[in-house]
């Protein structure tokens, strides 16, 4: 009996141990799965971060070709022949005095350029009207002075700032023939042309008809200048082009036009040879006397030698400026010939003190400025003890 009880005890003990192992295994499985899931998710995140992605790079060649195709200039000008009849104007148009012409340019905001002579006339011969889809230029009762280029362009605006659209433009050159006035009238009877070694110069003997024969002449000594098309050439839209100016070409010249045996002479042109200036003003400063005594009169002069076409602006700083010390400042300029035969512009600004006082002692600073840059120079006044 005892033996049976022992066997039963051992049997039930073994059964309980097996059931415990099964429960442990059941509890352990979800822990392993959860851990493996977390690990798997972590690995996926890492792989996602370090994954090499192939970026889609646009085909730049195709894009450039597309842009180049889109950026081709568009000619927007048409000539109105009569009602309902339009055509693209030729590069040059030939009219006779008294004729009218009408040009249109497509666009909602159009700018125009035409011979400056028309700006000086207070009459109704020229009119420009902006319509909804185009701008219309009308010129009536044309004259020889109307000869020149007529152009238009679309105006692009971004807020208050506007610019010229170089890709939507139109232009034509109009000759207005007048047998009694072969040369296009000039606003000046005597023009100065500067010959520079760094580029061509133009003598603007433009004519009202391309059929006229035009020659170039020197006044002293009297002679016709050769026009070989190489060193000097002629263009009816510009005049005589001197491609390589030199010192020997300076002097007074004029043009002669001939049409059907009737010669006409242009205005005189003074050719001056000048140096090529490409920097800020070449400036110097000097006082009539740096050592002064009370009651003296003093001039401080700021001088610039430069390109004849470049205007120079002067500004001063001086000891009595803050206290509004009365001084007199005058400016003047003139053309001079240097020893090498070159013509330059001599510009001066002079500061004058009538009665020197203690307040006038100190530094006098002059700044000269042109379109290229500025130069500052200084000198000093001190008492002569």
Strand content: 35-45%
How far apart are the termini? 148 Å
Report the order of strands and helices.
HHEEEEEEEEEEEEEEEEEEEEEEEEEEE
Shape: extended
Largest sheet descriptor: 6 strands, mixed
Total number of helices: 2
- Broad structural category: alpha+beta
Number of strands: 27
Q: Radius of gyration from the CA trace?
A: 43 Å
The overall average pLDDT, rounded, is 82
Indicate the percent of residues in helices: 10-25%
Any low-confidence stretches, pLDDT <50, length ≥5?
A: 4-8, 19-68
What do you see in this structure?
It is a single chain. The protein is of the alpha+beta class. The protein has helices spanning 2-49, 60-70, and strands at 74-75, 77-82, 85-87, 92-96, 101-106, 110-113, 126-130, 134-139, 148-158, 161-177, 190-195, 201-203, 213-218, 223-225, 232-235, 239-242, 251-259, 262-265, 268-273, 282-287, 291-292, 298-306, 313-317, 328-337, 343-353, 362-369, 374-383. The termini are far apart.
């Amino acid at each position: 009996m005892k033996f049976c009880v022992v066997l039963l005890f051992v049997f039930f003990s073994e059964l309980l141990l097996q059931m415990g192992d099964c429960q442990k295994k059941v509890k352990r499985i979800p822990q392993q799965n959860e851990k493996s899931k977390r690990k798997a998710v972590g690995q996926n995140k890492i792989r996602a971060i370090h994954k090499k992605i192939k970026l889609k790079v646009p085909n730049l060649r195709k894009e450039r070709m597309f842009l180049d195709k889109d950026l081709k200039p568009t000619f927007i000008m048409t000539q109105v022949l009569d009602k309902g009849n339009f055509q693209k104007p030729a590069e040059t148009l030939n009219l006779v005095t008294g004729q009218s012409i009408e040009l249109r340019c497509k666009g909602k905001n159009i700018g125009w350029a035409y011979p400056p002579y028309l700006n000086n006339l207070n009459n109704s011969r020229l009119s420009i009207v902006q319509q909804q889809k185009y701008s219309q230029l009308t010129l009536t009762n044309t004259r020889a002075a109307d000869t020149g280029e007529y152009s238009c362009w679309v105006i692009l605006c971004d807020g208050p700032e506007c610019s010229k659209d170089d890709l939507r433009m139109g232009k034509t050159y109009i000759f207005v023939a007048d047998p009694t006035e072969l040369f296009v009238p000039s606003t000046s009877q005597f023009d100065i042309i500067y010959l520079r070694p760094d580029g061509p110069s133009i003598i603007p003997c433009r004519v009202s008809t391309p059929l006229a024969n035009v020659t170039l002449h020197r006044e002293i000594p009297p002679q016709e200048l050769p026009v070989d098309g190489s060193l000097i050439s002629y263009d009816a839209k510009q005049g005589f082009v001197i491609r390589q100016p030199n010192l020997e070409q300076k002097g007074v010249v004029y043009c002669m036009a001939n049409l059907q045996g009737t010669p006409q002479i242009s205005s005189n042109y003074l050719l001056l040879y000048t140096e090529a200036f490409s920097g800020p003003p070449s400036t110097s400063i000097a006082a009539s006397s740096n050592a002064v005594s009370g009651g003296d009169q003093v001039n401080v002069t700021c001088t610039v030698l430069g390109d004849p076409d470049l205007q120079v602006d002067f500004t001063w700083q001086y000891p009595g400026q803050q206290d509004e010390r009365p001084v007199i400042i005058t400016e003047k300029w003139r053309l001079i010939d240097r020893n090498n035969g070159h013509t330059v512009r001599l510009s001066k600004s002079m500061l004058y003190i009538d009665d020197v006082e203690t307040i006038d002692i100190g530094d006098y600073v002059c700044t000269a400025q042109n379109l290229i840059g500025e130069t500052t120079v200084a000198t000093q006044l001190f008492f002569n003890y």
